[in-house]
């Protein structure tokens, strides 16, 4: 089928992003050109430098010393507590073998931390989560600072890890880089059953033993969690930006196809270096169109709200300005073509079986809803990502995914679930916030009710248990922004608020904190900026103030006269769990709409 011309709104937003980024992008590309020109040639390093660099290279030592072929650096976020990253344990060994097949070598350049937000939800460690992204970026920079590499393989999947790896790698954008995923675990118990058990537990109708059995039925083996949260949204975006081998996102760990895709990534990375004939530096792959494509994919698939923070931060690392106005305007033009749990009943395995990313990209391109002409790590631009991978005997092959295998989960862009992407900007005298309308029934897009104000999600759950929230209510949870306490996810609010909604009450959440990519169902204005700390509007709210949250009109407002009120001071910052070591990150962080990064703010980017 012939692709339609690019949608006018997408064209307009892209031109605005390019114009707003003109100077910062030029500065970034100039830096990358200078870095490329002065890149250290291993042959010019002193003997002492070289000896240190490949003393542990064993059988690859002679090849690295002679500079016979490209030397590829691996930055790995491996640990075996994180199920999605457990399969990475043996990747470097295998990649060394695959690199030798094409005359290249591989060294592990370094490792990064890798938090599991599922483990830290509702706990003190969650206050480190967002800033772990900056820590990962810094770790990536340290890993690549040895001037030994001709290309970078990035091993990371989950929430803050992919954005952090990309942000760090972009500062070495004169090198090519490829993300190498490991794939999702198999499908466990139904998501509907898991959600039902969580709400029963919140009501005290089942015990901890039943809840744990349910959770273990969901999260049961190596691989990415199968709901469509931030981790799987990361994988979607890497496909939309052309940073994977096409179709690599959702193939199971241990499958022959998964191994061959990782092998192909290693071979491809060796082929696109500066010394080859198809040089594709990361700085040129991640451009304004690629960033817009990432946002389009997020909107078209109902992806994680966390990326309203991560996309601006990743863009800034490449000298690109992208904000919530851009995201909201794109949302008005990009239809919702996928419903994956928590926005639908099936998980990412069902999504992949129905056609997955190949289908999504194909239908978007057909309707002129994505930039086809981006430079990807693979040949053929984004069009190459509209096909799905498979095995033809022992060889990799790609084929047309055909029509949707399940129209309750995946539909063509010409006949979508809804005409817009469902990530809306709401704003007013309470600030600017994000509202994920694709996860909420339309009759709940507008909530008007008195508010109840809290400073912690623990206090919310205690009030719920006491029956104090059994009414129409807008729950406000403030002092959860990046400068206040690191902007933790407030996922433990979801069961209680869901119960209230199921009881027939009109319920909404307003917060300067985050909600997980797994959140849904309850209307929520999240990432509210300016945050409460420092006198933001939320700090002036009082219990009983009337609040209106409306995704249809883009409104976030109160009838209260906030101008005549004193701001409530921030509660005392808690210590322990190492949170005190992140005081610098909190102090220097910028707003959620800018990416909530202290590292980028302090660097003047």
From TrEMBL:
Gene3D superfamilies: IlvD/EDD C-terminal domain-like. Its cofactor is [4Fe-4S] cluster. Keywords: 4Fe-4S, Carbohydrate metabolism, Gluconate utilization, Iron, Iron-sulfur, Lyase, Metal-binding. Pathway: Carbohydrate metabolism; Entner-Doudoroff pathway. Residues 409-596 form the Dihydroxy-acid/6-phosphogluconate dehydratase C-terminal domain. GO terms for biological process: D-gluconate metabolic process; Entner-Doudoroff pathway through 6-phosphogluconate. Its EC number is 4.2.1.12. Pfam families: ILV_EDD_C, ILVD_EDD_N. GO terms for cellular component: cytosol. The keyword Glycoprotein does not apply. PROSITE patterns: ILVD_EDD_1, ILVD_EDD_2. It catalyses: 6-phospho-D-gluconate = 2-dehydro-3-deoxy-6-phospho-D-gluconate + H2O. InterPro entries: 6-phosphgluc_deHydtase, Dihydro-acid_dehy_C, DiOHA_6PGluconate_deHydtase_CS, ILV_EDD_C, ILV_EDD_N, IlvD/EDD_N. Binds 1 [4Fe-4S] cluster. Belongs to the IlvD/Edd family. Catalyzes the dehydration of 6-phospho-D-gluconate to 2-dehydro-3-deoxy-6-phospho-D-gluconate. This is Phosphogluconate dehydratase.
């Amino acid at each position: 089928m012939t692709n339609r011309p690019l949608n006018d709104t997408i064209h307009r937003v892209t031109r605005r992003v390019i114009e707003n980024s003109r100077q910062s992008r030029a500065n970034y590309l100039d830096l990358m050109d200078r870095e490329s020109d002065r890149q250290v040639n291993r042959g010019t390093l002193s003997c002492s430098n070289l000896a240190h660099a490949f003393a542990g290279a064993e059988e690859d030592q002679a090849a690295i010393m002679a500079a016979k072929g490209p030397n590829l650096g691996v930055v790995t976020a491996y640990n075996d507590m994180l199920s999605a990253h457990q399969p990475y344990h043996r990747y470097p060994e295998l990649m060394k073998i695959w690199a030798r097949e094409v005359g290249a070598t591989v060294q592990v350049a370094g490792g990064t931390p890798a938090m599991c937000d599922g483990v830290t939800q509702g706990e003190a460690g969650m206050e480190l989560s967002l800033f772990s992204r900056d820590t990962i970026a810094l770790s990536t920079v340290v890993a690549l600072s040895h001037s030994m590499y001709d290309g970078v393989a990035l091993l990371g999947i989950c929430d803050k890890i992919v954005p952090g790896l990309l942000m760090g790698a972009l500062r070495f954008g004169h090198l090519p880089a490829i993300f190498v995923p490991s794939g999702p675990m198999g499908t466990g118990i139904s998501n509907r059953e898991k959600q039902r058990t969580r709400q029963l537990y919140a009501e005290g109708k089942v015990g901890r033993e039943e809840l744990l059995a349910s959770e273990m039925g969901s999260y049961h083996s190596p691989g990415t969690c199968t709901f469509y949260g931030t981790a799987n949204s990361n994988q979607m975006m890497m496909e939309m930006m052309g940073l994977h081998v096409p179709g690599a996102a959702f193939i199971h760990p241990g499958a022959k196809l998964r191994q061959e895709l990782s092998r192909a990534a290693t071979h491809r990375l060796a082929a696109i270096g500066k010394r080859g004939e198809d040089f594709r530096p990361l700085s040129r792959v991640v451009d304004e169109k690629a960033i817009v494509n990432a946002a389009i994919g997020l909107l078209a698939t109902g992806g994680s709200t966390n990326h309203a923070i991560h996309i601006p931060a990743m863009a800034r690392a490449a000298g690109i300005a992208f904000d919530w106005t851009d995201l909201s305007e794109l949302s008005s033009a990009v239809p919702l073509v996928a419903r994956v749990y928590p926005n639908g009943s099936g998980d990412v395995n069902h999504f992949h079986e129905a056609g997955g990313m190949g289908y999504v990209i194909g239908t978007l391109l057909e309707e002129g809803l994505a930039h086809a002409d981006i430079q990807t790590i693979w040949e053929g631009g984004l069009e190459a990502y509209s096909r799905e991978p498979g095995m033809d005997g022992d060889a990799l092959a790609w084929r047309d995914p055909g029509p949707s295998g399940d129209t309750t989960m995946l539909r063509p862009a010409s006949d979508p679930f809804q005409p817009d992407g469902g990530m809306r900007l709401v704003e007013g005298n309470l600030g600017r916030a994000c509202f994920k309308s694709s996860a909420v029934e339309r009759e709940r897009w507008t909530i008007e009710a008195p508010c109840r104000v809290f400073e912690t999600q623990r206090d919310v759950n205690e009030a719920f248990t006491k029956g104090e929230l059994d009414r129409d209510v807008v729950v406000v949870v403030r002092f959860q922004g990046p400068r206040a306490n690191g902007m933790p996810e407030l996922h433990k609010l979801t069961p209680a608020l869901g119960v209230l909604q199921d009881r027939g009450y009109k319920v909404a959440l307003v917060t300067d904190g985050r909600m997980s990519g797994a959140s849904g169902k309850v209307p929520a204005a999240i990432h509210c900026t300016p945050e409460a700390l420092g006198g933001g509007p939320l700090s002036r709210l009082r219990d009983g103030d009337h609040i209106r949250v409306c995704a249809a009109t883009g409104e976030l407002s109160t009838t209260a006269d906030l101008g005549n009120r004193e701001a409530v001071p921030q509660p005392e910052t808690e210590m322990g769990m190492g949170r005190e070591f992140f005081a610098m990150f909190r102090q220097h962080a910028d707003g959620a709409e800018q990416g909530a990064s202290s590292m980028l703010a302090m660097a003047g980017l």
